[in-house]
Amino acid sequence: MRKLYPEALADQSFDNTGLLLEAPFDPIRRQMNSVLLTIDLTKAVADEAIERKDCVVVAYHPIIFRGFKSLTLSDCQQQSILRLALEGISVYSPHTAVDAAPGGLADWLADIVTGHLPNPEPATHTAQEKRTSPDTIEEDVASDANASTDTPAEAKKKPQRPRMSMQRTYSKPTYPSHHPVDASKTDLDPSSVDHTRSVINPVTGVEGFEGAGFGRLVTFKESQPLTHLVERIAHGVGSPKGFPLAIPQGKQVEDIQIRTVGVSAGSGHSVLKGVEADLLFTGELSHHEALAATEKGQCVITLFHSNSERGFLSSVLKEKLTGVLKEEWERIRNEEAEAEELTPEWEDAIKDEDVLVECSEQDRDPFGVVILQSSKQEGKPLS
User: Fold this and answer.
1) How many CB atoms within 10 Å of residue 357?
2) Beta strand pairing status for 257-267 and 279-284?
3) What distance in Å separates the CA atoms of residue 280 and residue 98, rounded to the nearest whole number?
4) Cα separation of 30 and 349, whole Å?
5) How many Å apart are CA 121 and CA 73, to the nearest integer?
C-alpha cells in the first residue's frame, strides 16, 4: 500500500493513515494469504474477515482517528479491533493518500464524469407533476364534511381542508453495486470525452508522485448536457436508484450545460470551496454548502459520502494491489527459502504461492435509497 499510496500524500492536518493494527503472526495458526478491501471497518466487515481468515483488512476510512485511553469490548469499534487482533488480522488505512495520488480516487471520479456512453447518449427529461382533478377534491371535501359531528349547515360555514388518502408500497433500501465499473460489464468508456484536467490543491515533494493533490478540476472542450453527466455517474458508481442533485432555482435539469466540473471524493467542501465550476461532484455537502453553491449558479451532485469512494476498490485498487502483492510475496518467499533454519510451519507458509485480494460484500454506506413503488393519491396534498 505504501508503494502505491505513500503516507506522505495524506492530509497530515487531520488524517490517520498507515498500519493501524499489527496483529501478531502465528505460523501455527496461519491466516490465508488474502486481503479484504473495505471503505468502513464495521462489525459486519470484521465478521466477514474472520470467517474468510484474511490476514489483512485494508479499510479506506481509519477506524482509529484519535488515541485510546482504554480498549474495551463495550465500544463497538474497539470491539472489532480487539476481535481482529485476537484472530491475527491486521488493519491498514490509506484514506487521503488514495485521494491525492495520481490515478487515485479523485482521478477515478474524473474518469467517470468524462466517460462516454454509446451514441446517442440517452436524452433525459424531468417527470411532469400530475395534477389532481377538481372533482376528486370536491368529493374529498364533501367526505370530510360528512364525517364531522357538525350539522350540515354548520359544516358549510366552516372552511374545510381536503384530506389526502394514500396507498403506498415502499422498496427495501437499495444500494449501489459492489462492483460498479467492470470493463466487461459496463458500457461506460471512462475518460473518453475530450477535456483537460488539473489538480485543485497540489501535494508536492513526494518523489515519483508528481501531479498529486486533492480534487480535480475538469474542463470539457465542449459543454456537456447535465443529463449526460448524470447518466455517466450513475453507470460509473454502480447504478444507484437515485442520488441528490441540486440546481439553481428557475432552471430545468434538461436545459443545463456543463463546461467545468470540480471533483472531490467524500466530504468535498474543504477541497471545493472557492472553486469556480459549473458542477460540483462529490460525496456529500451540507445543506448550507449546497445552498450557497446553487445561489452562485452552480449545480451539485452528491452520492452519500462513501458511494463516491467504494467503487474505486473493485475498479482500481483490487487489481493494483494484487499485482504489487504478488511481486512482494515472491521476493519474500525467495529470501526466506535461502535461510538456513526454518521451522516446519514457516516452510509450509512460504510454499503457498497464492495471493488474493477481494472486496468486502458487507461494506456499504449507512444510507440506502427507499423507492416509492406505487402511489394512489386522492385529494390535494397539504402544503
Assistant:
1) 23
2) parallel
3) 20
4) 8
5) 53
Residues counted in the chain: 383
Nearest-angstrom CA–CA distance, 321 and 328: 10
pLDDT for 118 equals: 75
Which pTM value belongs to this model?
A: 0.82
Amino acid at 375: S
Spatial separation of the C-alpha atoms in residues 108 and 113, rounded to whole Å? 9
| DSSP per residue, 236-259 | HTT--S---EE--TT--GGG-EEE
| Nearest one of 380, 375, 378, 372 to 167, comparing CA atoms | 375
Q: Which residues contact 353 (CB under 8 A, 6 or more apart)?
A: 329, 330, 333
Cβ burial of 167 (10 Å; 0-12, 13-18, 19+) is exposed
User: Could you write out the DSSP letters of every residue in 33-71?
Assistant: SEEEEESS--HHHHHHHHHHT-SEEEESS-S--S--S--
Total Cβ atoms within 10 A of residue 38? 27
Query: Between the CA of residue 221 and those of 188, 216, 278, what are the distances in Å?
Result: 19, 16, 14
Which residues lie closer than 8 Å to 288 by C-beta, 6 or more apart? none
Q: Round to the nearest angstrom and report the end-to-end CA distance of the chain.
A: 54
Query: Helix 43-52 and helix 76-86: axis angle, to 10°?
Result: 10
Element (H, E) at 235: helix 226-236
Q: How far is CA 83 from CA 45, 77, 78, 120, 227, in A?
A: 12, 10, 9, 52, 46
Span 308-352, pLDDT tens digits: 999 999 999 999 999 999 999 999 888 887 777 777 777 778 888
